[in-house]
Structures
1.
Amino acid sequence: MSDSSPPFMAGANTVEEQRARWERKRSRTAKELLETEDKYLDQLDLVVTFFVTILKAKGTVKPAVLETIFGPLESIYSASQALSLHLERGNLALGLENFCQNLELYGHYAENLEQANKTLKEQLRKNKSFQRFKKLQESRPQFQGRKLEDLLPLPLQRLHQYKHFLRDLLENTSPDGAECQKLAKAVKSVYEVSRWVQDVIRKRENSLQLLRVQKLLKGQKIQVLTPGRWYIREGWLLVVPSKGEELKHRMFFLFSDLFIATKPCHPLHLLNSKKLACQAVYPLHQCVVDKVFGHTKSQGGLLSLCFPHKTLLLMSSDQEDIDDWYQSLTAAVRYASVFQRWKGLKEGGKT
């Protein structure tokens, strides 16, 4: 008589083994989530206890300034306390479900963070009492050498961690249950807020790039800081003249709607020695980009940019660089053209 189990029994064992593996992985993830949540709470507690609470009581800074620097940090702290309590009691799905109702606090916190940092710097420069208070609090052994500036970005770092924890929990939860549905909803909420935060960060970084380029340019011939404009890239290229003159080395800036050609100011100029003079501004929505050569793995290549009243021939001896420029320009022109058509339709609809 054979010792092998009937086929249906073998299948049942496989299912049970899979469930056991899921449960082990899920338990490990839940434990790690709780441990890291408690560490996160300890760090938030430093800010709430030693800064927010005491500053409210002392009146060292005005309430409006306090609100700007710390934003909804106290509410974020309270939401995490509640989550930690649920996790300790093993109420994973319920705890996460309740926590996700407060997730929008992280989006608002991200939107406020740039202004928070500006206000903090301003207070440190102008308010000597606050400056002394901050230095005293940061010298406490609980801070372990950390500054307030190091602690303020913590919620956004923690949000990124939540994404991975919740995804792992969902992947190791049996799909045929109410808990799986709750976890799936929590994962969706976290990912939505993460996209919101990433969009805030991306816009902030773009604004910094636009401001940097604006400061690089001599004078105000072109207003770089314009709503809706996105910085794409910059770099040196050789301009090939149409009448056999020498090649001209120029710095180009590519944005979502414009292509700007510049050249260095005179190195001995008192004010503008490190700046760039704007030579030409080309709107991208009427541009046609083509590779004249550079389709093979030869050294470098030549790009043709055709505008209604001007054709630019741009060259680089770096093959990878010219390929990157071609891809960036092609994508930017496509975007600018679509945006211009949309803008025209929108304006036409108003008339």
Note: The two ends are 89 Å apart (CA to CA).
2.
Amino acid sequence: MGDDVLPVVVMVMVQIGYAGLNIVGKIAMDAGMNPFVHIAYRQIIGTIFLAPFAYFFERKTRPQLTTSILFWIFLCSFSGLMVNQIAYFVGLKYSTPTIACALSNLIPAATFLLAIPFGLEKVGVRTKAGQAKVWGTIICVGGATLLSLYHGPIVIGQSGIHWKFAEKTEKNNSSGHDNLILGPFLLIVSTISYSLWIIFQARVSEKYAAPYTSTMLMCLMASFQCVIIGVCVVHDKAVWSLDRMRTIAVLYNGIVCTALGYCLTSWCIQRKGPLYVSVFYPLMLIITAVLSWALLREKLYVGTVVGSFLTVVGFYGVLWGKDKEKSQSETESLEMKTDKIETRRS
């Protein structure tokens, strides 16, 4: 019983943590924190927090670190931590937490499309699994397009809850929602770069079975990359200072989302598999939508609701197709083994 309940509790906690990332990060940027500064500090905090885990848990078991492995880790840090997070947080600045979460559900579809040229996925349009992946991808992309380009009438207006700090930052940053084309576009770029990270990470996991160490190295490399870019973009030294809200945002995102989020997700993947973990991601959209409505007084439009629904439906379509394909592959493999055994007996 405990083996079934604990992973559920852990994954729900992870999704709550990631939902909080969108709220805390949005408030910090509305309060004046530059997204490039935010990202640079997040990588540094994540590196510091992960270093003890990498040292104590993997110092005796980690494989030898080669130039080839370092190159793949660099690709992971560049795509999954640097490009992904810059595009995500800048997109979040010009969008809303609900839209950011909804577009993150494009990840399975984007990963499927990118994995085809790498030879990691087969389309298989003649099978139900292949058709589910194709149609799931089309529905995902359609939902994301609707979400990005159409608002429509208001479904749920602003909440009556008054959080003075959030109201103050919203008034001081009244232009933060002006560019609702650039925001979703950057969030889609973030999704594509994260999908590339998944593909590169598969190669790293295959060659270097030390997840804490490899993630710590990714964060370390991304720290240098993000600091260099941040210094080039943000020249004012005062922007790099941390007040109370900025410190909370940096610590929360660095520890809860980068370090703990990865460790807990890895723990669940080892016990239940990646498909089990993926099923929980739409939960983040629901939690974020509720928190954004309650705390940030975000309005929910027809385009947001319908687009989010289609994106989640497409998300599960792709996952169902992949699960069906995996089951078929295991069945065929078992049948081949059975045939070999019967041939030997005869």
Note: The CA atoms of residues 199 and 231 lie 30 Å apart.
3.
Amino acid sequence: MAKEGPNWDGLLKWSIAHSDGTGNPRNLSEEDRKWFMEAMQAQTIDVVKRMKEITQVMQTPDNILEEQGVTATDLEDMLDELQEHVESIDMADDLHSIGGLTPLLKYLKNSHANIRAKAAEVVSTIVQNNPKSQQLVMDANGMEPLLSNFTSDDDVTVRTKSLGAISSLIRHNKPGIAAFRLGNGYGALKDALSSESVRFQRKALNLIQYLIQENPNDSQVITELGFPRIMTHLATSEDPEVREGALRGLYELSKDKPVKTDDTNEDHEKLKQVLQERINDISLMSSEDLAAIRDERQLVDSLWTAHYNEPSSLRDKGLVCDDADEPPPDVASRVLVSPLRGLNRPANNGDKSEKKEAPLLPGPGPGP
């Protein structure tokens, strides 16, 4: 368990100070202090105890769970609860200390697709903005089942959730990025772009942007694998996030490259056609619609300038903001990182109004 917890004493002083509007904390009686500290310690202990109980269930063989009437839905609910607990960085790190990380990673290979997907969500929460947990997952060989599910799982939801977990795992994690490359991660990203799942495409595009920004030399590999042609096609998508993500990826690939002014290359000519059609569509939009695609307008103009060494006609029409010469905003950072871990939790599948308590097996649990 983590040795350093929250400063409950300071929190109590702040709470009392702001509850009566005075802004100045009053002196605490020893009785108040003792009550509050015991209450907070009890709650912390309960969370760890609950995580240990969940770990016990995850360590139990499938046949025993079936004999006890534990269903796949029960296990999904249990993982939902675990995800709430590990939103706290302290609790995320403690999961390894109590032996829960290894059985969680084994759930990535569960026979039920929904459990594989939910396990990936929990892993994503654990490693998000948490270098220590990133290292623990890497040391436990957690990248291997995540990559396997991302690249070849039959269920697109599992593939999407696994990609989300990988994105969190390798962010600011050079060994993780290296493992992603060695595991044919770029090939899997190319397949994701060709998927019919819009959500899968979005996540892939966001990760591609981040990888190019972190490793500009990878642009050559990405280009050789045929990403530009696929992203040019996705730039015509009806989904605004996919469209913008594709344009942003093309922009990242075009930076610091020689300007091309001829149309002899088929892919280059196709990109020009797509950009011109998008310019025509944008020119006919209402003010309300234009406001909703501010970043996209800037990207179209930036791409046109990068490839043809002149501003697009959007600028002549006053449809590009004054700050268009500045680099387009970094959407990948907004998607892949959140200042508060809890705000970036993946949404639950379905509409569950109540949480079920994780099933606990009668009698002694499995040994450590």
Note: The two ends are 16 Å apart (CA to CA).
